[in-house]
């Protein structure tokens, strides 16, 4: 029973190492296929590779510390886990701050950090994801006139990226095709000027489309925060086991 914590920590790190190896093999196999060229995969590839490498390094150091009774490796393992835990706490706090803030604060967060750093700099790639995913073509609208179209349920992305603003004065043809009336547009600036019937353009570069995308990210912040809380509990559990393993290693090293 004395070495039970060593076995548990070694087994858990072995499992996470297998997960890390599986992630690396999967990512490398994706890289070798043609669909790697898609912008969506490019956005995900580097972060997932970093996560897979971190998992492998953590698991290997923890496995050596638990199974080989190396306190040096165990100290490194617990130090890295502590840094990781602090990062998780900061990330979870930020996610709940965004999810629980009032509307005015949310708008401030949206227009500063989220919109400028996450959406603004990566919008070309994000837009390509939406275009390649055929977000607008998959709306499956059966509307034959504007009244029926406006009564249909759509996601915020579909409603803000797949049709021109209502105050522009475009005439409805179908869900993705709108024409300029003979009398001209009511407004011809801003998002009204950006709208195009081309499937790879439409209103994807409109400010309202970008704001809808950021709005979806904010809605997901609560669920991401909850997931981070579970991960924090798991890391604390691992750290407690690591402390027990260190005591076991110290006890064993004190005997000839």
From TrEMBL:
Signal peptide: none annotated. It comes from the Eukaryota. The chain crosses the membrane at residues 7-28, 48-67, 74-99, 223-245. It is a multi-pass membrane protein. GO terms for cellular component: membrane. InterPro entries: TET_plant (IPR044991), Tetraspanin/Peripherin (IPR018499). Belongs to the tetraspanin (TM4SF) family. This is Tetraspanin/Peripherin.
């Amino acid at each position: 029973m004395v070495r039970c914590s060593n076995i548990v920590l070694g087994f858990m790190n072995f499992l996470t190492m297998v997960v890390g190896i599986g992630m690396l093999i999967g990512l490398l196999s994706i890289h070798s296929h043609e669909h790697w060229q898609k912008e969506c995969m490019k956005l995900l590839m580097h972060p997932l590779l970093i996560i897979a490498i971190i998992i492998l390094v953590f698991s290997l150091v923890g496995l050596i510390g638990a199974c080989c009774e190396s306190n040096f490796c165990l100290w490194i393992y617990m130090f890295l886990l502590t840094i990781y835990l602090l990062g998780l706490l900061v990330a979870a706090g930020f996610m709940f701050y965004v999810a629980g803030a009032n509307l005015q604060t949310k708008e401030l967060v949206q227009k500063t950090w989220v919109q400028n750093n996450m959406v603004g700099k990566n919008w070309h790639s994000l837009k390509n994801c939406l275009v390649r995913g055929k977000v607008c073509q998959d709306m499956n609208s059966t509307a034959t006139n504007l009244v029926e179209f406006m009564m249909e349920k759509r996601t915020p992305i579909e409603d803000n990226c797949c049709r021109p603003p209502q105050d522009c004065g475009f005439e409805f043809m179908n869900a993705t095709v709108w024409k300029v009336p003979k009398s001209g547009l009511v407004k011809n600036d801003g998002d009204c000027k950006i709208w195009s019937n081309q499937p790879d353009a439409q209103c994807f570069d409109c400010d309202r489309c970008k704001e809808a995308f950021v709005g979806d990210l904010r809605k997901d912040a609560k669920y991401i925060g909850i997931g981070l809380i579970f991960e924090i509990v798991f890391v604390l559990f691992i750290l407690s086991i690591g402390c027990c393993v260190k005591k076991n290693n110290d006890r064993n090293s004190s005997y000839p």
